Amino acid sequence: MRVSYLAVSDKKCTVQMAGCNFRCRGCFSKQGKSGGVEMTAKELAGHVPEYMEVMLAGGEPTLDSEGLILLVEELGRNRVTLSTNGYLLDEELLERLRGIRVHIDLKAHDSWLHNWYTGMDNAPVLEAVRLLYEKGFGFEVSSVYIPGVVEMPEIENIASFLSGIGDIKYKIMRYVPVNDFSRRPQVWEIENAVRKAREYLGNVSSSIENRSHPEGREIIRF
Ligand code: SF4
Average pLDDT of the chain? Predict the structure, then answer.
Protein backbone atom coordinates (compact mmCIF):
# COMPACT_ATOMS: atom_id res chain seq x y z
CA MET A 1 0.00 0.00 0.00
CA ARG A 2 1.08 3.58 -0.63
CA VAL A 3 1.14 5.81 2.43
CA SER A 4 1.59 9.59 2.55
CA TYR A 5 1.72 10.40 6.25
CA LEU A 6 0.36 9.77 9.74
CA ALA A 7 -1.38 12.48 11.76
CA VAL A 8 -1.11 11.69 15.47
CA SER A 9 -3.06 13.51 18.18
CA ASP A 10 -3.74 12.62 21.84
CA LYS A 11 -6.02 9.65 21.22
CA LYS A 12 -6.22 9.15 17.49
CA CYS A 13 -3.89 8.31 14.62
CA THR A 14 -5.00 9.05 11.06
CA VAL A 15 -3.24 7.16 8.29
CA GLN A 16 -3.33 9.01 4.97
CA MET A 17 -3.06 6.60 2.06
CA ALA A 18 -2.03 7.87 -1.36
CA GLY A 19 -3.96 7.49 -4.62
CA CYS A 20 -7.65 7.45 -5.44
CA ASN A 21 -9.96 5.88 -8.03
CA PHE A 22 -12.17 9.01 -8.13
CA ARG A 23 -11.28 12.31 -9.78
CA CYS A 24 -13.47 14.70 -7.82
CA ARG A 25 -13.52 18.19 -9.29
CA GLY A 26 -13.37 19.72 -5.81
CA CYS A 27 -10.91 17.23 -4.29
CA PHE A 28 -9.62 18.43 -0.94
CA SER A 29 -6.82 15.90 -0.75
CA LYS A 30 -3.41 16.02 -2.35
CA GLN A 31 -3.31 12.30 -1.47
CA GLY A 32 -6.10 11.77 -3.99
CA LYS A 33 -3.67 12.40 -6.80
CA SER A 34 -0.37 10.61 -6.32
CA GLY A 35 2.78 10.41 -4.19
CA GLY A 36 3.29 8.33 -1.06
CA VAL A 37 5.70 5.58 -0.10
CA GLU A 38 5.12 1.86 -0.64
CA MET A 39 4.91 -0.04 2.70
CA THR A 40 3.83 -3.43 3.99
CA ALA A 41 0.99 -3.64 6.49
CA LYS A 42 3.44 -4.74 9.20
CA GLU A 43 5.78 -1.80 8.56
CA LEU A 44 2.91 0.67 8.66
CA ALA A 45 1.33 -0.83 11.78
CA GLY A 46 4.72 -0.47 13.49
CA HIS A 47 4.41 3.32 13.21
CA VAL A 48 0.96 3.46 14.85
CA PRO A 49 0.94 3.85 18.65
CA GLU A 50 -0.62 0.74 20.24
CA TYR A 51 -3.25 2.37 22.41
CA MET A 52 -4.73 4.70 19.79
CA GLU A 53 -7.85 4.59 17.68
CA VAL A 54 -6.91 4.52 14.00
CA MET A 55 -8.61 6.24 11.07
CA LEU A 56 -7.61 4.87 7.65
CA ALA A 57 -8.17 7.67 5.16
CA GLY A 58 -6.79 9.07 1.94
CA GLY A 59 -6.87 9.16 -0.93
CA GLU A 60 -8.75 5.88 -0.99
CA PRO A 61 -7.65 3.11 1.44
CA THR A 62 -9.52 0.30 -0.37
CA LEU A 63 -7.41 0.50 -3.55
CA ASP A 64 -5.15 -2.27 -2.19
CA SER A 65 -7.79 -4.47 -0.60
CA GLU A 66 -5.41 -7.29 0.40
CA GLY A 67 -3.06 -4.79 2.02
CA LEU A 68 -5.99 -3.21 3.83
CA ILE A 69 -7.15 -6.55 5.27
CA LEU A 70 -3.63 -7.35 6.47
CA LEU A 71 -3.34 -3.89 8.03
CA VAL A 72 -6.66 -4.24 9.86
CA GLU A 73 -5.47 -7.58 11.27
CA GLU A 74 -2.14 -6.07 12.35
CA LEU A 75 -3.82 -3.12 14.06
CA GLY A 76 -6.71 -5.02 15.65
CA ARG A 77 -10.07 -4.46 14.01
CA ASN A 78 -11.92 -3.05 17.02
CA ARG A 79 -9.87 0.17 16.96
CA VAL A 80 -10.05 0.80 13.21
CA THR A 81 -12.34 3.18 11.30
CA LEU A 82 -12.19 3.14 7.52
CA SER A 83 -12.95 6.38 5.68
CA THR A 84 -13.84 5.50 2.08
CA ASN A 85 -15.62 6.63 -1.07
CA GLY A 86 -17.23 3.16 -0.98
CA TYR A 87 -16.77 2.31 -4.65
CA LEU A 88 -14.75 -0.88 -3.99
CA LEU A 89 -16.56 -1.89 -0.81
CA ASP A 90 -18.24 -4.99 -2.19
CA GLU A 91 -19.74 -7.93 -0.30
CA GLU A 92 -16.54 -10.01 -0.27
CA LEU A 93 -14.38 -7.17 1.06
CA LEU A 94 -16.96 -6.27 3.70
CA GLU A 95 -17.08 -9.87 4.94
CA ARG A 96 -13.33 -9.69 5.51
CA LEU A 97 -13.55 -6.33 7.27
CA ARG A 98 -16.18 -7.30 9.82
CA GLY A 99 -15.62 -5.64 13.19
CA ILE A 100 -14.29 -2.31 11.94
CA ARG A 101 -16.25 0.94 11.74
CA VAL A 102 -16.83 2.65 8.38
CA HIS A 103 -17.30 6.25 7.29
CA ILE A 104 -18.60 6.23 3.73
CA ASP A 105 -18.75 9.37 1.63
CA LEU A 106 -21.76 9.62 -0.69
CA LYS A 107 -20.94 12.46 -3.06
CA ALA A 108 -24.33 12.54 -4.80
CA HIS A 109 -27.44 10.42 -5.21
CA ASP A 110 -28.13 11.69 -8.72
CA SER A 111 -26.11 9.40 -11.00
CA TRP A 112 -25.40 12.05 -13.64
CA LEU A 113 -24.14 14.49 -11.01
CA HIS A 114 -22.02 11.80 -9.37
CA ASN A 115 -20.46 10.89 -12.70
CA TRP A 116 -19.80 14.50 -13.56
CA TYR A 117 -18.28 15.30 -10.19
CA THR A 118 -16.20 12.14 -9.57
CA GLY A 119 -15.77 10.56 -13.01
CA MET A 120 -17.34 7.34 -11.63
CA ASP A 121 -20.73 5.68 -11.38
CA ASN A 122 -22.44 5.81 -7.96
CA ALA A 123 -24.27 2.45 -8.18
CA PRO A 124 -21.50 0.55 -6.30
CA VAL A 125 -21.48 3.23 -3.58
CA LEU A 126 -25.26 3.06 -3.09
CA GLU A 127 -24.98 -0.72 -2.91
CA ALA A 128 -22.16 -0.48 -0.36
CA VAL A 129 -24.39 1.62 1.91
CA ARG A 130 -27.12 -1.01 1.71
CA LEU A 131 -24.61 -3.82 2.45
CA LEU A 132 -23.15 -1.97 5.43
CA TYR A 133 -26.62 -1.67 6.89
CA GLU A 134 -27.66 -5.25 6.17
CA LYS A 135 -24.45 -6.66 7.61
CA GLY A 136 -24.83 -4.67 10.82
CA PHE A 137 -21.66 -2.57 10.54
CA GLY A 138 -21.18 0.45 12.77
CA PHE A 139 -21.08 3.13 10.09
CA GLU A 140 -22.05 6.61 9.05
CA VAL A 141 -22.62 8.25 5.69
CA SER A 142 -21.34 11.72 4.94
CA SER A 143 -21.85 14.18 2.08
CA VAL A 144 -20.02 17.38 1.33
CA TYR A 145 -22.25 20.43 0.85
CA ILE A 146 -20.75 22.19 -2.19
CA PRO A 147 -22.48 25.42 -3.25
CA GLY A 148 -23.66 25.23 -6.86
CA VAL A 149 -23.08 21.45 -6.98
CA VAL A 150 -24.41 19.55 -3.95
CA GLU A 151 -27.02 21.72 -2.27
CA MET A 152 -30.30 21.25 -0.43
CA PRO A 153 -32.19 19.24 -3.13
CA GLU A 154 -29.35 16.75 -3.44
CA ILE A 155 -28.94 16.48 0.34
CA GLU A 156 -32.68 15.83 0.61
CA ASN A 157 -32.47 13.12 -2.06
CA ILE A 158 -29.60 11.46 -0.21
CA ALA A 159 -31.45 11.61 3.12
CA SER A 160 -34.56 10.16 1.47
CA PHE A 161 -32.50 7.36 -0.11
CA LEU A 162 -30.86 6.52 3.24
CA SER A 163 -34.17 6.50 5.09
CA GLY A 164 -35.44 3.94 2.55
CA ILE A 165 -32.74 1.58 3.86
CA GLY A 166 -32.96 2.39 7.57
CA ASP A 167 -32.32 5.11 10.12
CA ILE A 168 -28.71 5.60 9.05
CA LYS A 169 -26.35 8.03 10.77
CA TYR A 170 -25.72 10.94 8.39
CA LYS A 171 -23.22 13.80 8.51
CA ILE A 172 -23.14 16.89 6.28
CA MET A 173 -19.66 18.27 5.72
CA ARG A 174 -18.89 21.87 4.88
CA TYR A 175 -16.93 22.19 1.64
CA VAL A 176 -13.46 23.66 2.04
CA PRO A 177 -12.45 25.63 -1.08
CA VAL A 178 -9.12 24.47 -2.45
CA ASN A 179 -9.02 25.39 -6.12
CA ASP A 180 -11.70 28.02 -6.82
CA PHE A 181 -14.08 25.20 -7.70
CA SER A 182 -16.74 26.50 -5.30
CA ARG A 183 -17.07 28.72 -2.25
CA ARG A 184 -17.24 27.88 1.44
CA PRO A 185 -20.92 27.33 2.39
CA GLN A 186 -22.54 29.73 4.85
CA VAL A 187 -23.38 28.35 8.29
CA TRP A 188 -27.10 28.89 7.62
CA GLU A 189 -26.88 26.79 4.45
CA ILE A 190 -25.46 23.86 6.41
CA GLU A 191 -28.02 24.33 9.18
CA ASN A 192 -30.88 24.34 6.67
CA ALA A 193 -29.54 21.18 5.06
CA VAL A 194 -29.28 19.47 8.47
CA ARG A 195 -32.85 20.52 9.27
CA LYS A 196 -34.11 19.11 5.97
CA ALA A 197 -32.21 15.81 6.40
CA ARG A 198 -33.70 15.45 9.89
CA GLU A 199 -37.14 15.23 8.29
CA TYR A 200 -35.99 11.81 7.04
CA LEU A 201 -33.39 10.58 9.52
CA GLY A 202 -33.06 10.49 13.31
CA ASN A 203 -29.31 11.01 13.59
CA VAL A 204 -28.04 13.89 11.45
CA SER A 205 -25.05 16.08 12.30
CA SER A 206 -22.66 18.42 10.52
CA SER A 207 -18.97 19.28 10.50
CA ILE A 208 -19.92 22.64 12.02
CA GLU A 209 -21.08 20.95 15.24
CA ASN A 210 -18.22 18.50 15.70
CA ARG A 211 -14.85 19.04 14.12
CA SER A 212 -12.85 15.94 13.26
CA HIS A 213 -9.34 17.45 13.23
CA PRO A 214 -8.03 17.88 16.75
CA GLU A 215 -5.50 20.57 17.59
CA GLY A 216 -1.86 19.83 18.39
CA ARG A 217 -1.39 16.86 16.17
CA GLU A 218 1.97 15.67 14.98
CA ILE A 219 2.51 14.83 11.30
CA ILE A 220 4.83 11.95 10.43
CA ARG A 221 5.69 12.05 6.72
CA PHE A 222 7.18 9.18 4.73
S1 SF4 B 1 -12.80 10.45 -3.29
FE2 SF4 B 1 -11.79 11.91 -1.88
S3 SF4 B 1 -9.58 11.68 -2.26
FE4 SF4 B 1 -10.68 10.71 -3.99
S5 SF4 B 1 -10.75 12.31 -5.57
FE6 SF4 B 1 -12.68 12.41 -4.37
S7 SF4 B 1 -12.31 13.92 -2.74
FE8 SF4 B 1 -10.30 13.34 -3.60
Answer: 94
